[in-house]
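Bug #77: duplicate submission created two jobs. Keeping one. Sequence:
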Amino acid sequence: MNVDDAARLVVLPASEHRADQEEFDEFYLRFTPRLVGFLMWQGAPARLAADLAQEAMIKAYQRWSQIRSPEAWLRRVASRDLVRYVSRVPEDPMDELPESPGPLIRSTDELAEMESRQELLDLLGSLPPRQRQVLAWSVDGYSPTEIAEELGINPATIRANLMKARRAVAGRLRNREDS
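Kept job's structure:
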């Protein structure tokens, strides 16, 4: 290692490094499942959502001391990565759920819950990507103003997409009930 390389390294005191590491570890364990779910709300299959969440967490770890709002930052980074992935990969239809519980499903109640979640994901999957994205942020508790700030989009555009998404989902639910 030469002098220039050494000058680029930032060395934290051991106690500060340990505190940052413990904070990140706790955050990682608590937030990663929520980030995976957030990506699935946007249409990502479970495996892809897990991979994208992991990649976003690696990026967060590398910048941990500089991130002010880690949950919003990670949602933004993971959402962008999902959009990049979807734009370059042809759509791959999802398989149907099994008819009877398998080794990973402990009860028929669990299966029913998975089926209803799958129906909802199918409904959301029929929305345009921006509406799906805005709805996912909204479901995670963000206001249109906060979503607009995080995505760098006009708040009126966010509200319009949110309204269109809600109308489309409500209309499709009514059509299912009428059938």
